[in-house]
């Protein structure tokens, strides 16, 4: 590979001034190799994408850089991005523009040049045979599903190239899949991946008045998809919508608010090697931060669970019996008797309303959300909660989509969602209330206040 002396630094000012959330996104794109950005309409993602690519192309210290901005159709890519690319590269000395092949060439820090192509995913074979130092895949959900794996990814291998997947949701397609994959990678602290989702009611790019006007004139599904970035907007059989879950993530209750409410711990042990074992503590209307464990054996998980029970001191612990029988038996051997097995496929308390126990628990959790339930603002949790769909059987009973079907569809189980749902397995009374009732009965109706009781103690 021919090497040229590094170009002397030269100050170039381009007519681009990033705003929020672009100011948040740019540093992350520069520090991660693979990036997924879910953006509402009119957020300025194409502005961001073109300027990110220009900066990376100029700062490249390898010779003859090659970059590609790609939209679903070539005509669409030219309409959206070509003028931006030409406009923002005007200040660079020695710039070359090829109108017929849609590329711009600018100097880079290697002393050679970098070339940026505008391309369409409708003709991916046109890009085969070259290498890429970076790629922007805009509106990736509308690409042919094999473009990434069979075309783009191999082109990034030669020079450790980067990629940004961008777009607005359009159903649960490959863009949704790569978003879920990136979320999982971030949760596993994979430094190569970054993902973020930006809704119009959170960025401030559009005024509240404009949003409200669009909400009134667009269909609910259109508004949710285009401006609230709801991957499930086109589906009418999703139990928990992104609106419900997002509203719950914005609430926080204080210990005083929760005084007198039961403390419940939900345990959903891993089913397969890549699934997660989760502990989900819930205190009345407030779900607290979950604990997630991967690839741990049952006895190790029991050690973590005893520690959690000692610190959280739940009134009851509910555990999925299907894959937690050994955990439950060991906990009881250790003297932790307030643990109840829950058969997700078992008989519900209300068999006329629900097909099985898991459907009932999710149904009761849905009612809890409507009553004002609050959850931590964790992307992985919110994703799990909005994944399951539901249907009705011949007897008009609700049936939730099975974990196996979800895993086939998405490649992962909604373990955090099931961990919260299992806290609704059976009614639970706070131990202090039960003790007070027992004291009342023993003392002929007279209850003496407990001087050592501290409702704020964890």
From TrEMBL:
Q: Which domain of life is it from?
A: Bacteria
Q: What is this protein called?
A: Terminase
Q: Which organism is it from?
A: Anaeroselena agilis
